[in-house]
Design brief:
358 residues; alpha/beta; 11 helices; 31% helix; globular; binds acetyl coenzyme *A; 3-oxoacyl-[acyl-carrier-protein] synthase activity; fatty acid metabolism; transferase
Length: 358
């Protein structure tokens, strides 16, 4: 069996936060952010408990842009993106037999794919589960969908990349809070007969050694003194878990990305038997324009062939690649038959690339 990518969709929250808006709550400015990252705006799910302190005070009266909707969540964004992908693919929701939700910020820590399945209204209860791999999540979701199809048994697979890093950033830390936004994107991958695979090759990696450079870890357990401070013996029952905000060594992550991403894409290209010059589009995780520029220069792919929308949305983690793909398809940039080199990279550390045909 082969497979083809036949539909895509995306969704972003209605609350738009500009660099100037951020400059009112942390010590930063539009010039610093746009020169170092290329980011000008981001969208954020509003009304969450994370939007606290100065940030909430400043924004509570801020108007949302776009059509008014009901309460937004990661699930509502994922469902909207999935519906659009199904509509483009002309596949009925009841014909979906696998849903993969790639996210590190689910609405429920046990996973949000079954919630998405229910909200989509899938009558046949297809298998639905989460994949947690930060900004590499969507590419790893594509690869997992491909493996499920190859192993047999699945015909229509929805791969959804959705994240709301606004939930886990420290909104008082100017080094990180300026980078991220919330979004969801989805693609529909369908099994097909014949050897004409839409997914031509892939390359996947993890390196736990680099974990210290980017994480949002469970807080270390209380000291021995604190254990039992609630009157319990030997620290039982244990305290409720809590997680730290996202911590990042930006320079190390930057160096890591510009080193491993070109290598991985070169490897995927070699596996597919294609030269870099045969690529129509380079579609990278939208973390920083300078990373996009460095990788495309290394691969000698002209900047006109690099898909970039991070000026409008910032780094939306697992949502960024399918969101950028969807915009490029709907604007007519990416056309049927085009060959795309895509790569994700981020916390873990993880990184993954694939060559696929639209
Ligand atoms: N506004 C103004 N000044 C700032 C800001 C800000 N928002 N943030 C930091 N600064 C200051 C620093 O305090 C520092 O000041 P100092 O020189 O007086 O000490 C100076 O600017 C330089 O700070 P650096 O952190 O060294 O800036 P750098 O050039 O490394 O740029 C950045 C930071 C943009 C984060 C860059 O390192 C980067 O993009 N790294 C990659 C990050 C990335 O892509 N992460 C996503 C991974 S995907 C995932 O899985 C989540």
């Amino acid at each position: 069996k082969g497979c083809k990518l036949i539909g895509c969709g995306s969704a972003v929250p209605s609350l738009k936060i500009s660099n100037d808006d951020l400059a009112k709550v942390v010590d930063t400015n539009d010039e610093w952010i746009s020169v170092r990252t290329g980011i000008r705006n981001r969208r954020v799910i509003s009304g969450q408990s994370h939007t606290c302190g100065a940030y909430a005070l400043h924004y509570k009266r801020k108007q949302s842009v776009g059509p008014l909707r009901g309460k937004e969540s990661l699930t509502t964004l994922a469902v909207e993106a999935a519906h659009k992908a199904l509509e483009m693919a002309q596949v009925d929701v009841d014909d979906v037999d696998l849903i993969l939700v790639c996210t590190s910020t689910p609405d429920d820590i046990f996973g949000c794919a079954p919630k998405v399945q229910k909200a989509l209204g899938c009558a046949r209860n297809p298998l639905a589960y989460d994949i947690t791999a930060a900004c590499s999540g969507f590419i790893l979701g594509l690869v997992s969908a491909y493996c499920h199809i190859k192993a047999g048994g699945f015909k229509n697979v929805l791969v959804i990349g959705a994240d709301a890093l606004s939930r886990i950033v420290d909104w008082t830390d100017r080094g990180t809070c300026i980078l991220f936004g919330d979004a969801a994107g989805a693609v529909l991958i369908q099994a097909c007969d014949g050897e004409d695979d839409g997914l031509l090759s892939f390359d996947v990696h993890s390196d736990g050694e680099g974990y210290r450079h980017l994480n949002a870890a469970l807080k270390e357990n209380e000291t021995d003194d604190e254990l039992g401070s609630n009157g319990s013996v030997l620290g039982f029952p244990p305290r409720q878990a809590s997680y730290s905000c996202l911590q990042m060594n930006g320079k190390e992550v930057f160096r890591f990305a510009v080193r491993v991403v070109p290598q991985s894409i070169e490897y995927s290209l070699a596996k597919a038997g294609l030269p870099a010059s045969s690529i129509d589009w380079l579609l990278l995780h939208q973390a920083n324009q300078r990373i996009l520029d460095a990788v495309s220069t290394r691969l000698q792919i002209p900047s006109e062939q690099v898909i970039s929308n991070l000026a409008n949305y910032g780094n939306t983690s697992a949502g960024s690649i399918p969101l950028a793909l969807d915009e490029a398809v709907r604007s007519g940039k990416v056309k049927p038959g085009h060959t795309i080199a895509a790569a994700g990279f981020g916390a873990g550390l993880t990184w993954a690339s694939t060559i696929f045909r639209w």
